[in-house]
Amino acid sequence: xxxxxxxxxxxxxxxxxxxxxxxxxxxxxxxxxxxxxxxxxxxxxxxxxxxxxxxxxxxxxxxxxxxxxxxxxxxxxxxxxxxxxxxxxxxxxxxxxxxxxxxxxxxxxxxxxxxxxxxxxxxxxxxxxxxxxxxxxxxxxxxxxxxxxxxxxxxxxxxxxxxxxxxxxxxxxx
Amino acid sequence: xxxxxxxxxxxxxxxxxxxxxxxxxxxxxxxxxxxxxxxxxxxxxxxxxxxxxxxxxxxxxxxxxxxxxxxxxxxxxxxxxxxxxxxxxxxxxxxxxxxxxxxxxxxxxxxxxxxxxxxxxxxxxxxxxxxxxxxxxxxxxxxxxxxxxxxxxxxxxxxxxxxxxxxxxxxxxxxxxxxxxxxxxxxxxxxxxxxxxxxxxxxxxxxxxxxxxxxxxxxxxxxxxxxxxxxxxxxxxxxxxxxxxxxxxxxxxxxxxxxxxxxxxxxxxxxxxxxxxxxxxxxxxxxxxxxxxxxxxxxxxxxxxxxxx
Lengths: 174, 309
Fold this sequence. Notes:
By secondary structure, chain A is mainly α. Chain A is 72% helix and 0% strand.
């Protein structure tokens, strides 16, 4: 890779890095795991930079694969005590509702109740704003599966104790 | 107007993460780490310091440099070696022989394998430790720094799953045609021979195959069968040039394998042990600079090097 390509890579990361890290955080439900996934994704992208046509799509695919690997590795290990960024199960509205730091533990905890595929579909559909067809193609499933899985996942999230009130409040805002 | 559940979820996902920012240093770190990894993965090699390997190399040296004394096992009616017509092997034949040698070599035992190598340019020493079970890689280095204010870290953060594990390598095909296909599918991303070379793509399939095969050959977790298959893949790759009877930069007998990259025009070169098929040295070319790195040894470690026991 020559200097020009390195600069192009760094420019891409400068432009898309925040979004990639946020996607990784939602996919993993874990800040530290997300940082590892983000870094490994960039590494794989850099190695193949000259032959990747759509870096953003490549990164999404790699992150999804890495998250699946992580999930499998976790299944093989004994369950560990999870400390989730000060999450104590309280209603997040008791703090500053506008604060991402206050809201994040609740949202990540809720996402963690989903399967890896459900989480991927939720993140790709509602955070990345990909179409059903795009998500289906990326995950290798049918658009119908994306639709039904997303529907069930949203219903499941809506029923999470930490999110019930947030959904109810937000839905009534005109 | 009521919001749908999907709208609410969309808003929550964004609100929950909009304060997260990627550290700018990560991209620079990836670039630096990749270059260092290349130096460790493409340029370095498995050493031949074990007694068995050293014996085999010595035997090769003798057979090449020794006088033309007839071998005790030679057929009584055979011509002396000096009267035999010279036989010139093709590059593919040499690589096939290398494949046979690699298949016969023994696989390093133990979970952790440590490679030590020396950079011929600045004489820095590096040790790379591979975990055969998890694929994690640790890197340590030692160097004399002559520039005031300059420094070199003695170690680097562990590279999680920096290599396929032994079990993952075991699942790779040893059929050369299937292995070539695998080398064209990095990370399972679909890349067919026809797709490479299309608009905006700069490398040919043969570029990728040579680059991939020579990179993987460095990995000490590669099994002898897979190493042998890699040489067969190279034997069938157009543009590969082979020189026999050469030596690497620290004087070890070697077979030199090289190929000119279609895009950069650089020659990528690797030196292999004719006795074991192990990589002895690789020429790391980056932005016009060429660095030779030689492996000086390898050993198995009994413990996880990252944590104290």
